[in-house]
Fold each of these.
Amino acid sequence: MSEISADMSVRTAQAGGFYEVVRQLQDVDVQAACMAADGYRVRQALAKDTLSPEDFLALLSPAARPYMESMAHKARDVTVRQFGRTIQLFTPLYLSNWCTNRCVYCSFNACSGIDRMQLDAAGVLREGQAIAATGLRHLLLLTGEAPAKASVDYIRDCVRVLRPLFPSLSIEVYALTEPEYRTLAVAGVDGMTLFQETYNEALYPSLHPAGPKSNYHFRLGAPERACRAGMRNVNIGALLGLDQWQRDAFMTGMHALWLQHRYPGVDIAVSLPRMRPYAGSFQPVCDVDDRALVQILLAMRLFLPRCGITISTRERPAFRDNLIPLGVTRMSAGVSTAVGGHAENEHSSVGQFEISDPRSVDEVVEAVSRVGYQAVFKDWHPLEDSCAV
C-alpha cells in the first residue's frame, strides 16, 4: 500500500491528463496492494469523512468484507445527505446498431452477423413518443461505432427530433473529438456516457482487436473532451468482469476523482455494469458476484460522496431494489437494447445484451416508492423553451 500512497492525491489533481495517472499506476501492483489491506486499515478508512485513494483500496479489499454492514449504513447516510431519497429514472434509445468494431464481448461486433438497423427521422420520433408516453424525461441515445452510418450530423438530427419531447438528452456513442462533442452540446445534448470497458492497457487490445475503439488513448481522453466541450454531466465506468474487478473499480473511482478535480462545474457520475449474455461466446475472466458488486457500490459512494451512481437493467429486479438505499442515484426503466425496441417490437433488432430487469416504468416507480424513495422523472430543464415539460 505504501507504494501507492506516496502522492497519489496530488497527482490526480495536477496530472496533465488522466493517462498520466494510469501510466504512473502501471508500476504499482494495485491488485496486490488491495489484497494486502487488513481490518485495521479498513476501520481507519471507515472513520474518515474524506477518503484517500489508499482508503478506497482498503474498502475494495477482501479485508473489508466483514465490515460491509458498517459500510452500508455510512453509504446510505452519505447518499441521503447529498442527494436526498431520490432516484432519477431514464431509458436508453438505440438509434443504430451498425458498428465497425470487433469487441469480443458485444453483440454489435462487426463480425457477429446480426441484422443491422438504423432509425430514420420518423422511426426516431415514434420511439421518442412511445418513451415520452411513459412519463420519462431523461433519455440516453446510443449507437454502435460506425461514423459513416451514424455520423455526428445524423446524431444531431436525431437530437433535433427528440428535443421537443425530452428536456435532458444524453449520448452513449463512440468516442468523439472535442469539436464534435461541442456540436452536439450546442444542438441540445447535455450529457455524455462512455465506458473505458477496462483500464488495463495491456489487456485492452485483446478485447478490442480491430476498429476505432481499439485506440485505448483516444477513448480514455473522451470524457475530458466532453467536459471541455460543455457537457453538463459526464458518466464513466468499466465493464466489470473484463479484468480483475478490484483494479477496474479502483481505476474508475480514480478517473471520476480526477475529472471532479479538473472540471468542478461538471456533474461527474459512474455506472457499475456487469457482463451480461449477448450474441456471442466470450466469457468474462473475472466473476463479479452480487456481494462484490455491493462492495464496489459502497466503496465508490464513500470515496466519491458527490458522485452520481447508476445501476442498469443488467441487474435483476429484486437485487436492484435492494441496492437503492445503498448509494444508487440513477436507474434505467422500461428498457429495450434493440433498435426500434420501444415502438416497433415486432420489427426490432437483436439487442446489444440481455437485460435482467424487464419491468415497465410504472413498475420501477412502484418499486422505488416501496423502499421509501421518490422516483424523479425530471431534475433538469434548459433555459430555452424548446423542450416539453
Amino acid sequence: MTALTDLGIAAIRNGVRDGDFSAREVAEAFNAAVAAAKPLNAFLVETPEHALAAADAADAARAAGEVLKPMAGVPIGMKDLFCTKGVPTTAASHILEGFTPEYESTVSQNLWNAGAGMLGKLNLDQFAMGSSNETSYFGNVISPWRRNDGGNAPLAPGGSSGGSSSAVAARLAPGATGTDTGGSIRQPAAFVGISGIKPTYGRCSRWGTIAFASSLDQAGPMARDVRDCAIMLEAMAGFDAKDATSLDLPVPNWEAQLNASLAGKRVGIPKEYRVDGMPAEIEALWQQGIAWLKDAGAEIVDVSLPHTKYALPAYYIIAPAEASSNLARYDGVRYGLRDLPEGANLQEMYARTRAEGFGNEVKRRILIGTYVLSAGFYDAYYTQAQKVRTLIARDFERAWDVCDVLLTPTAPSAAFALGEKSADPLAMYLNDVFTVPSSLAGLPAMSVPGGVDAAGLPLGLQVIGKPLDEQGVLNAALALEERAGFTARPAKWW
C-alpha cells in the first residue's frame, strides 16, 4: 500500500470517504513526518492536535453516514502569514514574535469549514519579502532537493512561500497555503517541483492575512498537482464582506470542470519574456511546453507585451511603497515587540522597536517605500510606477484579443544555493522577472513542473490567464502536467 504521506489531497479525500483508511491515520502519518523533518526548518509551529481534531470530526461524520466536507480528512500546512486564532502568528519576524491572534483569517476559516486540519504554521521570508526564504527571523528553510553532482549545498526552496513549498515537496503535507505578491507562490513551486496557483486578485479574502503590499497580495494553494490545487482553491476562495477588495462572485467548481483538451484554444507566447542571459535549458523547456500545448489541441500565437521590461522596476516601487505604509503599524505600542529602555521617550521607543524588530530586507523595502512616497519624489516615482502598471495591464488586455492564455517560464533558473545571491539584492529581485507582470495586472497565473535541469533540479512552466478565468489556467496547466509526466522527487536526507 502506498504510504499515506505520498497521497495528495484528492487521494486522501477519496480514501477517507471510501473507508480505505481513517482520517486519524492520515493525520498521525503527517504529524509524524512533520516531527521528523526539523532539518528542513519548514514549520515554525506544529499543531498536531488541530490536525487530529479535524480528522476525528471527519471520521465521526463518516461513521454517522453524513456527506463529508470537501476537504474532510485532509491535513494541510498554513503559511505563517495567516492569522490563526490561538496559534502564534509571526510573519517570520521578530517584531511579531509572541503574537497570538484572537481571530481567524477568512482563508484559514474557509479551509477549516471545508474540513481541513492544520499541521502547523509554515516558515517564510519575513513579512513575505524575499525570493529564497533567507530573510526569516527564525532561520532559512532548506529545500528537500539536492543537486545530483554530489554536492550537498543547501538549496533555496524559493520565496516567500518557502516553508510551504518545502513541506509539500518533502511530503510533510499534501497541500499548503501560500501568498503571492510578485510570484511568491509560483517561484517556490517551480523550485521544488510542485504546483501552485495565484488566483485573480480578489478571489481570496485578504482579511486576517498580514499585509505586505495590499494591491498585490493574494492567497492561493500549493499542492502536488493541478487537481489538488483546484480542490484547495475552491475551499479557500469566496466573497468576504470584511475585505473591501473581495470579489462578490460565486466560486466555480473548478475541479469538476477540469479538462486537458485545449481544442479551439489559442496560447500566446510573449516575445518579451526571452530575456538576455536566459539559460538554454529554460528556453528548451519553454519550447517543450509549446509542443505539449500544441499536442493538446491548442493553436500557438505570438503576442507582444511591450511594457514587460518596466514591470520589475515598477513592482519594486509600488510594493515597497505599500509595505512602508502597512508596516507603520508595528511601532511597539499596539502589539508585538516593544523596546523601551529606561528613560526613553516615545520617539526613541519607536526607533528602537523597529530597528530591533525588522530584518535587513524589510528595512530596505521600508526605506525604499518611504523614499518614493516622500513629498519631493511621489510623482517622479510612485505616480509614474502606477502609470506603468496601467500600461502593463493594457498589454495583457490586448493580448486577450488574440489568445486565451499565455505560456512562459516560471523562473529564470532552477533553485540556487542558499547564500548564493543574498549579497546582491538586484540579482535576487530578478527571480521575479516572469511572475511580476501578471501580479501587477491582478491576473490568475499558475506554475506546474515541466522537467529538470542538468543538475536534476525542477523547472517550472507558467500559465497566465484572463481575469477570473482560473478554469482556463487550470486546464492548460493540466494539459502540461499530463504530458510532462513529472515524477521526480527529492531523496530523503533529513
